[in-house]
Model the fold of this input.
Amino acid sequence: MTPVQASTIPLLSEHKDVVVEAVTGSGKTLAFVIPVLEKVFKVLKEENEGFKKGHFGAVILSPTKELASQINTVFENLLQYYPENEKQIKTQLLVGSLGSAREDLHTFLKEKPQILIGTPGRLLEFLSSSLVKTSSCEILILDEADKLLDISFLGDTQSIVRQLPRQRRTGLFSATISRAGTDVFKTGLSNPVKITVRSDNKQQSSVPTSLGLFYMVVKQQSKFKLLLDIMINYRYKKVIVYFPTCTSVTHFYSMFNYLLSKSDRVEKDELKVYSLHGKLNAKPRLKTLENFSTSTSSKSVLFTTDVAARGLDIPDVDLVLQLDPPTDPDMFPHRCGRTGRANKVGRAITFLSEGREEDYVDFMEVRDISLKHLDTPVLKDEFSKWYDTTVREWLFQDRTRYDQSIRSYVAFVRYYSKHSAGSIFRLQSLDYKALCEMYCLTRIPKMPENKYIEDFPKDGWLNFSIDFDKYAYKDKKKEEARLHELKTEERKKERIEKAKKKKELAKKNSAWSSKKEHKDQLGS
Ligand SMILES: Nc1ncnc2c1ncn2[C@@H]1O[C@H](COP(=O)(O)OP(=O)(O)OP(=O)(O)O)[C@@H](O)[C@H]1O
Done:
């Protein structure tokens, strides 16, 4: 057993509620999976009939579908070794958009699972059915409990807690549970034992010693270029890259694939890219995660957002790279903790934009997270030129890409304004022109934040311009609509121009005729 398992399993299996804080990758999942199995096993042994129809014995709550699915897999892996002659223990995964709530209910009544694993929204919907009886529930687990108790989930989590019997065990788990403060008691804990497992390095509170935390100071416009350079030139095998928003994942995923296809420094299929974010449906999300986890390419990289920051246990990730720090500093150790798990060595590198963002290092130090400086690799001129040309080539192939760039840029500015460390990540200090360059924009989009831009270029145009009238969509229907709109616009302009000319002429004529009239009057 790992230390957290050795401390937690005996307590939770017996009669204690627990609040467990242990570094990322320290084995918290098995620390609750085993007690849950023991509790269910006891009921099956002691009561001949087992659980009555519509009843279940345990609930495990997780903030994301991916994590819920992973926990379900850990149960399934263990249950493979469960004796066949015993009454079978079954689990059911309850997460939104995998199937309908009705289908979930149907499966529950048919399969009679004793352990329910799900996300708060779907679980709440499920429990609201009169066919589901909660009175036999023996144990409730909140994995990533501080997240489940934050503002986004608290309402649902508490509604679930209220529906379960008071006489039950409760276990709260997270690498950052302290952040939840006294909110932990909103889960109906009774006399809990707090278990804390820190890293050997006393200075790091929530990440293990095997995980090296680094930062690089990078020019805003070079971030993605640098990422590509690192992916091509360094020997990392499995990498997770955190992007600020869902739109930026989509945008850079497409761009990255194009750059790879055009690069003569990467063999075909040598480097495989995956994308995962919260705006994708549950099925493709889970599939992507599985494909990335089992990828056999010599290098694999997952572009994602905070949706894949907590709890995910993907084997052999050796680098986590953050293009920008998360808006919530509590997310930082979770993102980094996707590598350096279970005593394996891992590295997490965070890009900080040159200037004020460098203060983030001291800010994290106060939170017991020490980041070491790494020299930023120098990009070769030849590579840089190739990158710029290839990116423009990609951009001009389809106008949709430009629209996407604008959306990503705007979403980034919104994201930036949400940083809880507002004195470091200031909208006033953002280098908007460099940001436009990174997001492949030739013109600064109209936004209220433009007031912070010194030397605002004429009409917002940056170093190169595009003839937007000729910039086409690849999609035929979209292009037809654009051309139609363009024509309508041209006609409208012509009409306005004509009307203007007519008015001017009328004015001229009236001036002339009134002058003539005046002269005539003088003459007479
Ligand atoms: N007793 C053990 N011996 C060896 N490996 C273990 C043991 N317990 C767990 N592991 C492995 O350690 C890895 C990390 O475990 P787990 O995902 O439970 O970590 P965690 O503490 O929940 O991390 P996080 O805070 O990121 O959610 C897993 O791959 C798991 O299989």
In short: The longest strand covers residues 211-218. The two ends are 118 Å apart (CA to CA).
